[in-house]
Amino acid sequence: MSFLSPVEPAPAIARTSGFAREAAALVLLTALTVIARIGMLGTAEVWWEDEHTFGLMAQDVLRGNLPYVEAFDNKPPVLFLLLALFLKIFGNDFIGLRAFGDVSVFVTAVLVRAMMRPVTGEGAALLAAVVLIGLSAFPIAQATLSEWPAIMFVTAALLCVLRRPSSAPAAFGSGILMAFAVLTRTNLAFAAVAMGGVLAASPFLRGPYPLRSLAAFVVGGLVPLAGLFLLYGLAGRLDLLILGMIRVPLSYTDGAEHLRYFLFTFTELRAMLFARPLTTGPLAFVCLTASLLLLLRRVGRFRSADPAPVAADRWRDSMIAAVGLAVLLSVLRSGGAGAHYLVQLFPFLAFNVARIVGPSGTDDPVRPMTAAAGLLAALLPIAPVAPLSIAALRDPVGQVHDTPQWRASRFIAGDRRPGDRVWALHQHVVLVHLDEPPIARVGVHPGNMTVLRIIRPLAEAGYAPAEPLWAYAALGARYVIAPRGFLTGERSIFYLDADQAVRLRAMLARDYEVGFAEDDVEVLKRRD
Description:
Blueprint: H1 14-37, H2 50-62, H3 77-90, H4 94-120, H5 122-135, H6 147-163, H7 168-182, H8 189-201, H9 211-234, H10 238-252, H11 258-275, H12 277-302, H13 307-333, H14 346-357, H15 366-394, H16 396-401, H17 404-415, E1 421-424, H18 429-434, H19 452-460, E2 477-482, H20 498-511, E3 512-518, E4 521-526
Parallel strand pairs: 1-2
Antiparallel strand pairs: 2-4, 3-4
């Protein structure tokens, strides 16, 4: 018998063996997550400025502010509230930041295994979870991405609605979880609509989801949204919730750019595949072949003489496929930020691997081929990060502190006087290390003040002046954190147009001198 086939334990030892199996699986998934992820502790910068921005927004929440009140970023508020909780639990530093993504990866892997095990058996379900963790070690799957907690919520929502398809409470819980996903990453509204669409179609096609499930799903989805509005309303800041969560995102949406974003995503993916053929090649192979093989298998099973399991399979696969396709469409639509959006597809790739490897006859040649490809996709990206993870396990705090960004923050902390202000033109991670709020509410992300579609509604609401980002350097900052070589090098127009760069260079050259410089970090100190 194949180890990938489900095995029912004897009744006398079922409870003991079941507990041992669960414990062994959790230990394995925990160990793999640590090996795949903790090596990122010594990485100063994750994905552009996103991690730094999320950290500054979460630290502002820890100071007692709701998102958008004292600091702004163009992301939904639950993301910052959730990250603030992680900083509170794991520490207000980079270890807390990185735990945000690491815990999300582990929980998602556990959910993937729990969701696929009744369908495919223990071996295939565990392989799917291992594949997900392995994919999380890819360079695009960085530590503190909003994609990880968001797709964790989507996976949990699928588990709820698939485990008990006729249960209204399960659909209610699924609606709550999907709402959390959307309030963490707005693009996942597509997935929420897709799940609701499958629930709505089921009663008319003799599926397992009654109309009460759809109603419960919708009501559940409104609960977190109503809670947010109540929270901001009680604080008297409902206008800021509407500004940050509705007005700015709507102004930022430009239908004319959808095709460009679509093409940009594929350009980024192609570059990634060619740049790292030994690690991303297996990802491409499994991703392209798994869905095709699963489709072929579904066609064969639809011809089965037993209609009951076929109907159950059809609705289960339809729900997963509909939500996965919706996530794919949302990624392609908003892919201008780069290939890391593809992280949201990793659980669905794991689902496909489990469905193909799952029990369907031990002589099926598709199973060992897919199992081998899945293991390859899981182990190859983990291998190069394993030494970094071992070093981080020995000294996690030392890994975080052994960066130019940390040393720049210590220079400022040791040199500054009470009341001295710090402005980050770049390398906002230094502000995170200092637990220092940005010099302006819109200065959390360095690009906010250069995107007219963001700054225009903020300026109209009186939230920020309609001045370019560089103007904030004149607000009395004693220290300016800039890319090294800002005054002379090619990085001088970072987030600035040519005219702004010229004017800012002149002002900094007149009023500031270099106080710290290492790698790509430079701290300019105002001349006394």
